[in-house]
Design brief:
The protein is an alpha+beta fold. It contains seven helices and 25 strands. A hairpin with a 2-residue loop joins strand 6 and strand 7. Helix 3 crosses helix 5. One of its GO terms (biological process) is DNA alkylation repair.
Length: 415
């Protein structure tokens, strides 16, 4: 064995100046790579209480009588045979929706002033910037279901604080003037119907267009057939992630996406209340496994000895209120000569009406705090011609001014 003195000496490693400075640099140095937001698994919301606590939505179970629910399901199955898959341009190529869609409008009385009828008609006959066929009226079963949905939505909205730009409502039939409690604040005059077949038909993350339903819209989504799931995801912005809470708060804690997972069983009404479209995106993801749906009542014309068929189909009907103050005649047109779409400020840039309000610390219930302090959410009109014009549009952009455009009435006076 050779002695240590006779062993060859190791060549010292050369350390560059950058490597040496990296050893001395503090971990929180400004030029170090910033760490991303923490990632959490989706929060599964299985009960109405959990949905109401963590999202601006409410979930209502078994809202229709079983016979009506089955009759509406069979009616939509028959109607959906002629529904189409929507196509539009996205990033210089044509894309197609992975499910079939159609629009229906509610039959409105002839004594209507035309505003409600016109708003409903235009909301239904234009989709993704494309002129479509004139939508048909609600089928009989859908009209019956709509009455149940309207009662539930109006009752639920009366329990909640209103946002200033929400629709102010109108007197109920037979109500005395000045009776605010009897105001009809929401009524469904348009229904967007979707059919999802099997486990793979889905729809990606999106928000519903506000062009004709206006700011802080309320949308009632009725699900029939096989069970499904819905994932609302908080938009990128500033949120407090403590305990995976999806209740949006105005803090500087974390920037990122938080996702929840709503389990939608059969015959469920999910109401996306005001602020949902402004602060959340939602999707219907593909399913790994689905449970076939067997209706509790037989379809029309089925012989007594024949078994009730099963379905792998989910029917979704989203009832919407197309506001008369957002009638198509009031929609600005871009340089392309095409009606614009209304977009909310998705990055939560809020303008405080008073400078001293911005110095107030955030409260425990930020949703009520934001309403009470009068924080105004910004909206703008922008070109959408590229959705159907081979991806070509213009750079038209205009901030919505509700007073100059003659919008309203609103839930509160707009200053």
């Amino acid at each position: 064995m050779s002695s240590p003195s006779n062993s060859p000496s190791k060549k010292p490693k050369t350390v560059t100046n950058d490597e040496f400075m990296a050893l001395l640099r503090l971990p929180n140095s400004s030029d170090s790579k910033p760490s991303g937001p923490p990632k959490f698994p989706p929060l599964t919301l299985t009960t109405p209480d959990m949905v109401a606590k963590h999202t601006p939505c409410t979930m209502h179970l078994s809202v229709l009588p079983p016979e009506l629910a089955c009759r509406l399901f069979y009616s939509m199955i028959e109607e959906s045979e002629s529904w189409q898959r929507n196509k539009w341009w996205l990033f210089d190529r044509v894309v197609e929706s992975p499910h079939r869609t159609s629009f229906y409008i509610k039959q409105i009385s002839e004594d209507d002033d035309g505003g409600m009828r016109g708003a409903a008609q235009y909301c239904g006959d234009r989709y993704n910037g494309r002129q479509t066929d004139l939508p048909t009226s609600f089928p009989e079963a859908m009209a019956e279901a709509c009455e149940y949905v309207e009662r539930i939505v109006n009752a639920e909205m009366r329990k909640r604080p209103r946002f200033p730009l929400e629709w102010g409502g109108e007197p109920a039939p037979g109500a005395s003037p000045g009776e605010a409690d009897d105001l009809v604040v929401w009524r469904a005059n348009v229904a967007a119907s979707n059919r999802y077949e099997g486990s793979q038909e889905s729809v990606g993350f999106h928000t519903d267009q506000l062009t004709n339903i206006g700011p802080f819209a309320t949308i009632a989504s009725l699900s029939l057939g096989r069970a499904s799931s819905c994932r609302p995801s908080v938009l990128r912005g500033r949120f407090e992630c403590e305990r995976l809470s999806l209740r949006m708060r105005r803090t500087s804690a974390v920037q990122g996406h938080i996702m929840s997972h709503l389990h939608i069983t059969r015959q469920v009404l999910c109401i996306m209340h005001a602020s949902c479209q402004e602060t959340f995106k939602h999707c219907i993801p593909p399913q790994r496994v689905i449970d076939p749906f067997r209706p509790s009542h037989p379809p029309p014309g089925l012989a007594p000895e024949e078994p009730i068929p099963t379905f792998n189909t989910r029917i979704n009907i989203t009832f919407r209120f197309c506001r008369p103050d957002f009638h198509s005649s009031t929609t600005p047109k871009c340089k392309c000569g095409v009606p614009c779409i209304l977009r909310p400020d998705m990055k939560n840039r809020y303008a405080l009406p008073d400078a001293q309000d911005s110095e107030k610390p955030p409260g425990e219930n930020h949703e009520e705090e934001r309403i009470n302090s009068g924080i105004v959410t910004k909206y703008w009109w922008t070109c959408y011609a590229g959705a159907q014009n081979e991806g070509k549009g213009c750079n038209f952009w205009k901030v919505m001014d509700v007073k100059a455009e003659g919008r309203g009435p609103f839930a509160e006076e707009v200053v």
